[in-house]
Amino acid sequence: MRTELRLVRLVRPYWGLLAAGLAVTFLASVLDGFVLVVLIPLLKNLFGTAGELNAGSTQLEAWVDWMVQPLVAGLPPAQAAGRLVVVLAAGLLIKNAFAYLSNQITVRAQEGLVRDLRTRLFDHLLTLDLGYFQRTRPGQVISAMMSEADQTKTVITASLVALFRNVVVLLVTLVVLSQISMRLTLFTLAFVPLLVILLQRLIRRLRVHARARSKERGEVTATVTERIGAMRLIRSYGEEARESAGFDAQTSRYRKQAIRTQRFSSLTSPITEVFSGFLVILIIWAATRPDLLGLEAPLAPATIIVFLMAALRLTSPLKTISGFPAVMALALASAERVFQVLDEPSAEVDRPGEGEARFERRIVFDRVSFRYGDGEPVLRDISFTIPRGKVVALVGPSGAGKTTLADLLPRFHDPSAGQILLDDVPLTRLRRRSIRALMGVVSQDTLLLNTTVLANIAYGSAGASRDRIEAAAEAANAAGFIRQLPQGFDTVLGERGTRLSGGQRQRIAIARALLRDSPILILDEATSSLDTESERLVQQAIDRLMRERTVLVIAHRLATVRDADEIVVLEEGRMVQQGTHDELSRAGGLYRRLHDLQFREDEAAVGARAR
Ligand SMILES: Nc1ncnc2c1ncn2[C@@H]1O[C@H](COP(=O)(O)OP(=O)(O)O)[C@@H](O)[C@H]1O
Ligand SMILES: [Mg+2]
Questions:
Q1: Which of 80, 87, 392, 484 could form a disulfide with 75, with the two C-beta atoms 3.0–4.6 Å apart?
Q2: CB of residue 398 inside a 6 A radius of ligand 1
Q3: CATH number of the domain residue 32 falls in
Q4: Which residue range is the domain that position 277 belongs to?
Q5: Residue 355: which residues within 8 A CB-CB, separation 6 or more?
C-alpha cells in the first residue's frame, strides 16, 4: 500500500489538470450514452414503429421521447430520421473532440509526473554517499531514471483517467440498461464477480513477474553502459566473442522474463472477451424468454437491439477496469524501483548546528580511525597536524589507506572514531559545502566533463572571467596544448576527456584547482602515471599550485616528498613513521625501504638535472 500512497502524493501537483481532464472525460462519456439512446427513436423510425413512440414502454423511452420530440414533432418519418442522423453525427463528433482533449490534458499531467520523478531522482543522487556509487551499477540507476520512471506514468493514464472514464461509461451504460429493463440488467451483472475473481488471481502472479522484469532490464542497461566504457579493454584482450555471448545470455534472460510477464498481462484481454461474448448470448437468450426473468412485457425489437448494443459496451470498460490491476501491477513494480533509489539514505545533508567553516591556523587529525561500512578498519588511530601554509606528504605502499585518509578531509566520509579539526572545530560540526569551498582537490583519476576546456577549468568557479581561466591554464602548463586543439579553449573534450593524454588531463585538473584558488589543497598521486616529460610540466604546475597553500599531498615522487614540511608514513592503516625527509632517511624503517625501492630512479634523475 505504501507505494500506492507515495504515488498519490507525487500526483498531487497535477490534481487541477487531472480534474479538468476527468471533467472532459465525463462529458465525453455522457455524450457517448446520449448517442446510444438517440438510436432508439432512429431505429423505431426505421422499423416503422415511430407511431408507438409516444407510448414509450420504459422510463428511458419516455426520456428520449422528451429529448427528441421537439426536433421531430410533426415531421414525416423520412425527414425525422434525417434530423436524428444529424443529431447522432453531431453527438459523435463532439464526443470524440472531448475524448481527444482529455487525452491531451492527461499527457501533460503524466509527462509532468515523469519529469518530477527524474529530477527528484537526480537531486537525490547528488546527496548520496559516495559508497553508493561504488556498490551500485550505474546502469541500474539509469534504468530507474529512464525506463522505470517512464513506466510509472501509466499510473495516471491507467488508474486515474482510464479507470475514471470507464467507470463513467460503465455507469452511463448501466443507467441506460436499467432504464430499459432492471431485471435483465441485474441478470447481466450477476456474472461480473466471476470475472473479477478470475482476473484477481492473474494479477498477483503478474506483479511478481513484472518486478523481475524491471530488474533484468536494469541489468541489461548496466552491462551496456559498462561495456561502452570498456571498449578499449575488450579490444585489447580480444574478449569480443565472450562479451557477445554474455550479452546474448543476458538479453535472453530479459526476453524470457518479458514473455512471462506478458503471458499474464495478455491473458486478461481474452478472458474478458470470452466472458462478454457469453454474456451477450445469455442476454439474448434471457430477453427472448420474458417469463424466465418475470419481465412484465416482451421488449420491442428496437429496444432489445439497443440493450444489446449497450450491454456490449460493457465489455470495453469491464476489460479496462478488470485489467486495471494488471496495468497497475506493472506501473507499481516500476515505481518500486524508482522509490528504491529514492529511499537510499542521503548522506550529504546539513544537520542542525553545523556552522560555516573557516581556516586560519591549522588542520588536526586527532586519533582518526575509519572503516568502510562494516568492514575491517582501514585507518587506525592516526594523529598529525598540518599548520597553515605547510605541506604534509602521505607516503606508504599501495592499499595503506592514503586515499581514504585524504577523502576524510573534504568530508567525503566521516571518521568512525576520533576527529578532524579545522581551527579546532570538528569537521562534523561544519557544513560540507563550506568545508569544500576551502579546498582544491586534484585526485588520482582526473575527471573531465563532456564540455569545453573553458567550462572544465571553470567547473566549481562559476563566473570566472576568460582571462583568469586562461591565466590558470598558463600557470598549469596547459595553455600550450590547449591552444593547439581545433577550437582552442572552446574545444569540446568528449566523454571523460578521452581525447587528451593523461598528462594533459592532469594539467587541466590542476588549472581547475589553481583557478579556484582555495587555501587548502589535496593532491592524490597527481604525477604517478606520467612519463618524464609531462611529469616535469605537471610537477612545475604543481609547484606553482602548492605555493602559499596548506597542502596534504599523497606522493610517489621524491621531489614532492623531499620538500614537504612533514612526512607521514602509513602502513596497513597505521601511522608507522613521521618526520622530515632527512630525519626519516636517517632513521631507517619503512620510509627508508620505500625510498630505496621507489625513489632510486627519481634520485638519479634529480641528480642528473642538478649536474
Ligand atoms: N570504497 C571502498 N570500500 C571498501 N574498501 C575500500 C574502499 N576504498 C578503498 N578500500 C580499501 O581500503 C584500503 C585503503 O585503500 P586506499 O585508501 O585507496 O589506499 P591507497 O590510496 O593508500 O592505495 C584498501 O585495503 C582498499 O581495499
Ligand atoms: Mg590511493
A1: 80
A2: yes
A3: 1.20.1560.10
A4: 2-342
A5: 425, 429, 430, 431, 434
Condensed to tens digits (0 to 9), the pLDDT of residues 401-440 reads 999 999 999 999 999 999 999 999 999 999 999 999 999 9
Q: With bands split at pLDDT 50, 70 and 90, how would you rate the model's confidence at 296?
A: low
pLDDT of residue 490: 92
Q: Is residue 413 part of a domain?
A: no
Measured between its terminal Cα atoms, the distance across the chain in Å is 78
- Asked if the structure places residue 269 within a domain, the reply is yes
Length of the chain: 611
Cα 428 from Cα 420, distance rounded (Å): 8
- Segment 243-257 shows an average pLDDT of 95
Q: Is residue 92 part of a domain?
A: yes
Its sign, for the CA torsion 262, 263, 264, 266, is: positive
Grid cell, residue 174, equals 448501466
Residues with Cβ within 8 Å of 511's Cβ and at least 6 positions away in sequence, in order, are 457, 469, 472, 473, 475, 476, 478, 541
Residue with cell 582571462: 467
Is the separation of the CB atoms in 262 and 209 below 8 Å?
no
Return the pLDDT at 54: 38
**Which residue, by CA, sits nearest to atom 24 of ligand 1?**
399
d(CA 497, CA 36): 65
Q: What ligand 1 atom has the least distance to the C-alpha of 402?
A: 22
Which of 13-17, 416-420, 520-524 has maximum average pLDDT?
416-420
Distance between CA atoms of residues 301 and 46, nearest Å: 12
Beta strands in 193-312 (DSSP E): none
| pLDDT in the model for residue 51 | 45
Ligand 1 nearest-atom number relative to CA 397 = 22
Residue 607 has pLDDT above 90, yes or no: no
Q: Strand 550-554 relative to strand 574-579: parallel, antiparallel, unpaired?
A: unpaired
Range with lowest mean pLDDT among 64-73, 120-129, 482-491 = 64-73
- Using CA positions, which residue lies closest to atom 5 of ligand 1? 372
DSSP E strands, 403-531 = 417-422, 425-426, 439-442, 520-524
Q: The C-alpha cell of 93 is what?
A: 463528433
- Number of domains observed in the structure of the chain: 1
Mean pLDDT of the chain: 84
Radius of gyration, alpha carbons of the chain: 37
Cα–Cα distance, 50 to 41 (Å, whole number) = 7
Asked if residue 372 has its Cβ within 6 Å of ligand 1, the reply is: yes
Other Cβ atoms less than 10 A from the Cβ of 321: the count is 21
Residue 540 belongs to a domain: no
Q: Which of 63-67, 346-350, 391-395 has the lowest mean pLDDT?
A: 63-67
User: 135 CB under 6 A from ligand 1?
Assistant: no
